[in-house]
Write a structure and sequence with these properties.
By secondary structure, this protein is α/β, with parallel strands linked by helices. It is built from 16 helices and five strands. It is an enzyme of class 2 (transferase).
């Protein structure tokens, strides 16, 4: 089980687009039908971790026992939550340098849920991201889900519910976090950053405000756009080595990280395909940003291009797998890009 620290667990927080999920939780609590297992699902960047942290704090809050579900922030339980030392809260995520949540972590957690509460109230466990449990870990949850201990709550947080076994999903009550409208997201970003929000940044993140806020800091979005164009431009012009570029993209401390690079590549390749189908000669880049990409072949194999898009998406979905040889997978992807969009073989000699 990952060590619980104040820095590793987000502070309890309700964001504007969490309203429907909060209403669902409060209605169930008021009717004494609060579920013993919740599948908290939604896209990345919507603050599911913050919402899960709030749900835990509210369930454990001393004022919730005699009233509506809330996080008062003042009682002894809430003070322990803030200090990261509440003995009845268990937060499970992948251990350091691991990609998956192990069966040993889940067994330790379920063992704690069967014990008596230290503060004579609820015991709450969070598994996040739940889709990164190993198959054995997910299966070990079944008994806890089928025979829950009284006054215990399990919250599974995921952006990929399909990555969980159906037997696990069916035993949880689903709570969906829906994204905000574009207008709501732009206003929230403006308030959080103190600057005007970039609509293109929201488009890039799939209207995920927390991801947009992260990329807006220190000009990271512009750096990503410039860096991707430069590296791909050099690759397609024959001035860059595939192996070296793959190593650069896979650097763990690189900013931006590989998932953002793959998202950018996905959007760019898709725009190339659409422009080719429509006969457009527009520059394939984000508007109002300087292009650095060379001219692409006049005749493109659209089917092959979409096959590369599929390869990008497959790699992105596989990044959490422990056995994935990331650098080799990136090399394979870059070779595919070069084969479809690069110069003819004779021109590469």
């Amino acid at each position: 089980m990952a060590e619980e620290t104040v820095s590793s667990i987000p502070a309890p927080r309700i964001l504007p687009w969490h309203a429907s999920a909060i209403d669902q939780a409060r209605t169930a609590w008021s009717a004494s039908r609060f579920p013993h297992a919740i599948l908290l699902q939604g896209a990345e960047g919507l603050g599911k971790r913050q919402l899960a942290s709030w749900l835990v704090a509210a369930v454990l809050c001393e004022t919730s026992g005699a009233g509506p579900l809330q996080f008062c922030g003042k009682c002894a339980s809430c003070q322990l939550i803030a200090a990261g030392s509440h003995p009845d809260r268990y937060w499970i995520d992948p251990e350091e340098d691991k990609q998956q949540i192990s069966v040993d972590q889940i067994r330790e957690m379920t063992g704690r849920l069967t014990q008596t509460s230290y503060r004579h109230g609820y015991k709450v466990a969070i598994v996040e991201p739940a889709h990164q449990m190993t198959i054995s870990a997910a299966n070990s949850l079944l008994k806890t889900l089928e025979e829950p201990t009284p006054r215990s709550v399990l919250i599974l947080v995921t952006s990929r519910p399909s990555g969980l076994p159906a037997t696990v999903r069916s035993r949880c009550q689903k709570m969906v976090v829906h994204g905000p409208s574009s207008t709501e997201a732009i206003e929230w970003l403006r308030q959080e950053s103190g600057a005007e929000a970039d609509p293109q940044l929201l488009e890039f993140t799939g209207n995920a405000p927390l991801r947009a806020l992260e990329l807006a800091q220190e000009g990271r979005f512009d750096a990503l756009n410039e860096g991707m164009q430069k590296s791909l431009g050099q690759l397609l012009a024959g001035r860059s080595d595939v192996t070296q570029l793959a190593a650069e993209w896979d650097t763990k401390d690189a900013k931006p990280q590989l998932p953002y690079r793959l998202t950018w590549l996905d959007l760019w390749l898709t725009s190339v395909a659409r422009a080719a189908i429509g006969g457009s000669a527009d520059l394939f880049t984000f508007p109002a940003r300087s292009p650095h990409l060379p001219s692409l072949p006049a005749a493109l194999n659209i089917s092959a291009l979409y096959a590369v898009v599929d390869q990008v998406r497959a790699l992105k979905s596989q990044l959490t797998r422990t056995a994935l040889q990331r650098e080799l997978a990136i090399e394979s992807l870059l070779h595919s890009v070069l084969q479809v969009l690069g110069p003819a073989p004779a021109a590469r000699r």
